[in-house]
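fyi for ur records
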Amino acid sequence: MNRLGWACGGLVLVGVLAKPARAGIAVTDVSSLVEKVRASVVSIQATNLVVNADGGAPAAVGSGFVVASTTGKPTAAGSRPVWILTNFHVVEKAQQIEILVDGGETYAAKLRAVDPRTDLAILRAELPTKIQPLPLGSSAALKVGEPVVAIGNPFGLGATVTAGIVSAKDRALGPGPQNLFLQTDAAINLGNSGGPLFNAAGEVIGVNTLVKTDAVGIGFAIPSDIVKAVIPELDAGRELPARPYAGLATRASSTAYRRHFGFSGAEKGLFVTRLVKDSPAHRVGLQVGDLVSAALVGGEWKPVRDSVALQALVESAKPGETLELKVLRKDGKSYQTRLKLDALPAALAKQRLEVY
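which gave:
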C-alpha cells in the first residue's frame, strides 16, 4: 500500500492489437466468457533472490495475460514463445519470474521490456500453443454502467473471477503522468495487479492495477487504449521513444494551498509543488508556490485547472518543443514563460515518477 492509501493488485493481463466485433458473448453469460478467456490469463511470481534476514527471498505475486505470440513453428513439445503483459510494479525488483497457467503447469519467464511511466511490462515465456493471445478492446468506447469481468490471482489463491460494472472513467489518481484510470466495482484485491478487465465481448479493456484499501468495491484499471499505445514498442523489445519532460509536480488550487503559498484571493490554476534541479521548469525560473494559470494551446490561451490537463499537454509534445505558460506569483506579479522541454533523462525513465 502506498502513502495515498492505495494498494497494487495482482492480476496479469494479455491482449493482441486486433479489434474483434463487440458482439458474441451475452452480457449475462459470464461463465461462457470465462471459459473462452481463462486459459490466456496467468499467475506470476516474481522473486528477488536477495535473502532476507529470516532466510527467505522476497517475492511479488501478480497476474498477467498473453498479449501476442510468435508466428514461428511450434517446438517439438508443442509450445511457442509468447509475450505476456503485466504491471511493471509486479516485476520491477524480480530476478526470477515464474508463470503459472490455468492447468497448473509452471513456466519460466524473462523480462522483455518495461514502461514505468504507464506501469506496464512485457514478459517472454514458452507456453503451450493452445494458449492464445487475448484481444484488446476500446476503453474509449466503454460506457459507465457497462458490465465487466476481472480474472486474476488475488492473495495468491489462483484463478479467481469477479464481475461488476464500469463505475467511472478517466479517474485521475496520484501525482504522476499517465494516471487516468477506469474505476470498477468488480472485486480487485492484492495479487490482481496486471490482470485483465474484460467487457461483455471478451475483449480486454483494462489492466487491473489499484484498489482503494479502506473502501469496498472501488478498484482501478489502466485503460486498454493506453496499453495499445505502448505495446508496439514493448512487443518489439525496443526502447520507447524519448519522452518529454518538464521536471515539476503540480496540485490544483484550493483554499488550503492558497493559504499555504501566501495567496489571499480565489486564484485558479495549478500550484507548483515540486521542482527537479536543473530541469526545464527549474531553468526557466519557476518556483515552488508559483501558480500556473493558463497555457497557450493552438494559438489560444486556455485556463489550466487540473494537473491531468497540464500533464497531457506535456505528454503530447516532443522533446525540444516549447510550452508557453502564464504564471502568477504570490507577490501579485503575473508573467509569461516559455518552457522548452527536455527528453526524460535515462536515469528517470526506469522509475515511476511523481513529476512530469
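The radius of gyration is 22 Å. thats all i got for now
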